Amino acid sequence: MRRSFSLLLQNKPGVLLRAAQVLTARGCNVEDLRVSRTEDPFVSRMTLEAETVAEQTSLLEQLRAVPGVLEARDLTSPAIGQPREAGDLVTLQDIEAAMTRIRGSIPVTPLVLSEWFSNLTGSSVYFKLENLQFTGSFKERGALNRILTMTLEERARGVITASAGNHAQAVAYHAVRQGVRCVIVMPEMAPLTKVVNTQAYGATVIQKGGSFDEAVAEARRICEAENMVFLHAFDDHEVISGQGTLGLEMLEQCPMLDAVMVPVGGGGLLGGIACAIKAIRPEVRMIGVEAARVPSMMRAREMRSPVTVSAASTIADGIAVRRAGDRTLPLVEKYVDEMVTVEEEEIAKAILLLLEREKTLAEGAGAAALAALLHHRVDLRGKKVAVLICGGNIDVMFLSRIIERGLVKDGRLLRLQVFLPDHPGSLSRLTQMIAGQRANVIEVHHERAYYGVNLGDTMIEVTVETRGTGHSDELISALVSAGFNPKRVV
Ligand SMILES: Cc1ncc(COP(=O)(O)O)c(C=O)c1O
Questions:
Q1: For 306, what's the count of Cα atoms within 13 Å in the CB-facing half-sphere?
Q2: Same structural domain for residues 348 and 250?
Q3: 87 CA from centroid of ligand 1 (Å)
Q4: Backbone angles phi, psi at 187, to 5 degrees
């Protein structure tokens, strides 16, 4: 039987030779062998294809026993080079095989019980922290599984994809680590940090196209012209199987879960997880969460076929997918109990609460499932609920805007306009009143020419930090009682 192996070898004389001797002694006919560098200067990767007669487990054990062989894996079973028909549904066996393949390279992320969110919602809330993956999201699972199931011939051709986000970084990181050439096409307006990160992982980044769709078209063109392998972000059997490993992992960590809430873009993540969990514990409730502005999976479920919804911007850019996948929809139809949507402000609030209460940094898509739980899209009181925090790649400038807006909404930041006579002592009287109410002045702005200010008056715009809505209301009442006429800026 033809098999593919991957070995990590110490760069010492004789290690490669001794590994090859084991293979030949076990009757393997090596047909294709490549050695590539890894990011560790003392370690190389050897990939090979061979006709084998030996029983696979003991062969791997013998290879691992060779001094200097750090890792030996059989990449064959069961998916290498196997054509997947469009109608082939991912199965539990595919996900288990993916787990075996990626286990050594993808860390198990924590599933932590949050006391604070449990008290707030009445559920036992467990956060699955995929934002802690090296490139900041779960995407590594699917990308690595796909790369590890490529034939040596496919590996030699290299991979290409179009993405401006988490998929790009995951593919770049794992392709390069596996010694596979990687090209990522990003739209011209992609954030600079994402371009720089993806390049830093070793991928060639091509910026082309004014929109994501144009970047995809360019990636497809290059793929065809250069005979590369296109690595789809979600509508791919091995990618879905890789994402499904999260389902196995969560059940291992907390076997008695009642419900799992998962953000949905194209549906690879939800489809894979739901397939794994329902196969093992069909009674677990599976809930998919979309951004209300781009509800493509919900529409696809209603229409029983993927449909393209209008483009819209959302702070959950990772799940702003306009069309559900042809492979993912059947999985969602078969295994998912409910699909719900969340609004922009709800996502922003979830990001802020996660940061404040759990010290967890989530991006918009990563906080969508929590937003749905917090805003009662489903009634899960008294239940053990796993909430997937699937990514943490958020631009810091954007994060600072979310924090500021959240504080304003919570009444913890308050801006007031107050008209005062423009003479010495007026401002001091105002700030003393504010200090007397134990609010903290953050910013003061004087205006004499605009806002219809009378000659001889000044308008003071003052921003203060308070303990919340109640405290803000108390401060305004105290100012009114003292003869000021404050106007709240909204
Ligand atoms: C952080 C994050 N969450 C969720 C998703 C959705 O994954 P899928 O497209 O497989 O539904 C993505 C996709 O890029 C993502 O980046």
A1: 17
A2: yes
A3: 22
A4: -60, 155
Per-residue pLDDT reduced to its tens digit, 425-449:
989 999 999 999 999 999 999 988 8
Task: Decide which of 406, 428, 450 is a domain's last residue.
Answer: 406
Share above pLDDT 70 across residues of the chain, in percent, rounded to a whole number: 97
| Ligand 1 atom closest to 167 (CA) | 14
Neighbours of 387 (CB within 10 A): 32
258 C-alpha to center of ligand 1: Å? 23
CATH code, 339: 3.40.50.1100
Cα atoms in the 13 Å half-sphere on the side-chain side of 149: 30
**460 C-alpha to ligand 1 centroid (Å):** 46
Residues 259 and 394 grouped into a single domain:
yes
Residue closest to 228 by CA, chosen among 313, 125, 156: 156
- The CA 234 to ligand 1 mean position distance, Å, reads 8
295 lines ligand 1 (CB under 6 A): no
What φ, ψ does residue 209 adopt, rounded to 5°?
95, 145
pLDDT tens per residue across span 241-275? 999 999 999 999 998 999 999 999 999 999 999 99
277 lies in the same domain as 352: yes
Give the range of the structural domain holding residue 211, as residue numbers without chain letter: 139-230
Give yes or no: residues 225 and 356 share one domain. Answer: no
Residue in 166, 298, 301 to alter for ligand 1 test, most ligand atoms within 8 A of Cβ: 166
Residue 262 CA: nearest ligand 1 atom is 4
